[in-house]
Amino acid sequence: MDNPTKIVTVIQARTGSSRLPNKVMLPLAGKPLILRMIERVKASKLAGTIVIAITEKKSDDILKDLCDENEIDLFRGNTTDLLDRHFQAAKLFGAKAVVKIPSDCPLIDPRVIDRVIKFYLDNSKKIDYVSNLHPATYPDGNDVEIMSFSSLKNAWENATRPLEREHTTPYLWENPDKFRLGNVTWETGLDYSMNYRFTIDYLEDYNFIKKIYDELYHKKPDFSLEDILNLLKQNPEIQKINEKYNGVNWYRNYLDELKTITPDQTKII
Q1: What average pLDDT does this structure show over 22-32?
Q2: What are the b/e assignments for 134-149, b being 16+ CB within 10 Å?
Q3: CATH code, 218
Q4: Once rounded to an integer, what is the mean pLDDT over residues 14-39?
Q5: Model pTM greater than 0.85?
Q6: Alpha helices in the chain (DSSP H)
Q7: Domain span including residue 27
């Protein structure tokens, strides 16, 4: 489709995860997780310029080297202020619209990415921010957010709460009176957001994701969300690997601060 809007997709990444250190470098089908993640995002038709946004810490030099070796666009920025890191990366690469995708979603379906971006492009004159997270319906790990650069700049200039700086976009979706918001729900009509976990924070998550890659990647490198769900239906024991973390997300730490999130949208562990 003709797209006059310059889209920059920013994938935030770091090696310093406290729960599972160096998780982005763990191997999946013979390559580091972050490269498999980028491979899936690149399969999107609408993602535009893809930029890996890492920290300036020396521990992330390994990610810089990996990006250099694989000719991947890179930005280095603030370690804890992810809002600043996204804004500065988007500004450097001349974005008119900015897509935010975390680096811990190596099972993300590029078709889902395109569906969210297309919804934004089709409604860009009357909408500032679109995601598939408010409310979420896709299995966790298919997280896509897109916003106009001007809206991101507004958040960068005005967001003051630590959670707004750390998690990049809450200032947008927590203020429906200030921004025009949109949401994309799963076309199946199902809500699996609390039933499946395709993201990585814990060792069990890695073991689950690795099993998916071992089963599907060499047969069909661009395997889809439906392929994963079919595999799990046929092999329910795979889902059990990390099911104790189903529904666990960062919201649980901020329920007393978030205005638009309810307790049933997260799980306390």
Answers
A1: 96
A2: bebbbbbbbbbbbbbb
A3: 3.90.550.10
A4: 94
A5: yes
A6: 33-42, 61-69, 82-92, 110-122, 149-158, 162-166, 170-173, 203-216, 225-234, 236-239
A7: 1-264
